[in-house]
Amino acid sequence: MGDGLIAVRAVHFAATAILVGALIFRTVVAEPASAAAPDAAPMLASQVRRAAWTSFVIAVVTGLGWLLLLTMQITGLSLWEALTQEGLTTVVEVTQFGQVTVIRLGLAVLLAISLAGERTWPPLRRLTRVSALAFGGAIAWTGHAGSTAGNLGILHLISDVLHLWAASAWIGGLVLLVPLLKSSARSRTPGWRKLELNAVNRFSMLGIVAVATLVLSGAINAWIIVGTWQVLLATAYGQLLLVKVAVVVVMVAFAGVNRLWLTPQLASTAAADPDVSRQLARNSVIEIALGLAVFAIVGALGLQHPMIHP
Question: Residue 257: which domain range?
Answer without folding.
Answer: 2-301
